Amino acid sequence: MSRQRPLSPHLQIYKPQLTSLLSILHRATGVALSIGSVILVSWVVALSLGETAYSSYSMIINNWFGKLVLFGFTFGLFYHLSNGIRHLFWDAGYGYDLKVAYTSGTLVIISSLTLTIVTWFIVLFV
Question: Which of 4, 14, 42, 111 has the highest CB neighbour number within 10 Å of its CB?
C-alpha cells in the first residue's frame, strides 16, 4: 500500500518573481535590522563609557567598511518600513491584484532607494 507521492519541484525549476524576491528581502532586512541594532546599542554603550571608548568606536565605524555597513542598515530600515506599509495595505484587503502587487513592489524598491540616498546625502553633505 505504499504509493509514491509526487515530489515537489526543486528551486531550480521556479522562475524568480518580483513578489517572491521582495518577500525574501523583507525577511532578510528584518534579520539585518535585528543584528544592526547591536551596532546602535554599542554606540550608546561607547558614549556612556567615556571618550576613549567612543573614539575607538568612531575609528571603527568611520572607515569605509563601517560606512558601508551603515549604508546597508539604512537601506534595510527604509526597505523594511516601505514594505511594511505595503503589507498593511494587504492586511486591509487592498493591492492583491497582480498588476497592483508588482506596481507596489516597484514603488517599495524606488522609495527605499530614494530615501536611503537622500538620507546619506544629508548626512554627508549638509
Answer: 111
Q: What is the pLDDT of residue 112?
A: 98
Provide the Cα torsion 90, 95, 99, 102; round to 10°: -40
Residue 49's domain comprises: 18-125
CB 17 within 8 A of CB 101: no
Which three three-digit cell numbers place residue 45? 554603550
Domain tally, the chain: 1
pLDDT at residue 1 in the model: 57
| Closest CA relative to residue 70, chosen from 23, 124, 18, 28 | 124
CATH number of residue 64's parent domain: 1.20.1300.10
pTM, 2 dp: 0.86
Instruction: For residue 62, tell me if it sits in a domain.
Output: yes
